[in-house]
Write a structure and sequence with these properties.
Blueprint: E1 17-19, H1 25-59, E2 65-71, E3 74-81, H2 83-97, E4 102-104
Parallel strand pairs: 1-4
Antiparallel strand pairs: 2-3
């Protein structure tokens, strides 16, 4: 039986992974480190967007932003919202997207 070729992970491979309990511990650690790095960067971006949105909101920066988005049965429609609210929503979306996605079965 031919042994499977194990893919190498690099810092540029920011993807989610599903690991089995039989996976080599070194590969598991490498996968977790990359996912943690990706998650931390996403958290920082999210935090900056949310704080920027709160600052915009309290400074009273006005404007009209219309946003419509549809994703797999999920609809988002914002009409006449302020830029601060939009930044907060984008920050929350970034946080949701950048959560760690590794499962061990």
């Amino acid at each position: 039986m031919k042994k499977e070729q194990i893919p190498e992970f690099t810092e540029n491979d920011l993807v989610s992974a599903e690991l089995s309990k039989d996976t080599d511990p070194q590969i598991s650690k490498q996968s977790l480190d990359i996912e943690k790095s990706h998650s931390n960067k996403g958290f920082v971006i999210s935090l900056l967007l949310i704080i920027g949105g709160i600052i915009f909101f309290f400074l009273g920066i006005t404007g009209v932003v219309n946003l419509t988005a549809e994703l797999e049965g999920f609809k988002l429609k914002l009409l006449n919202c302020s830029p601060g609210v939009l930044l907060i929503i984008v920050g929350l979306f970034f946080y949701w997207v950048s959560k760690p996605k590794i499962t061990i079965k």
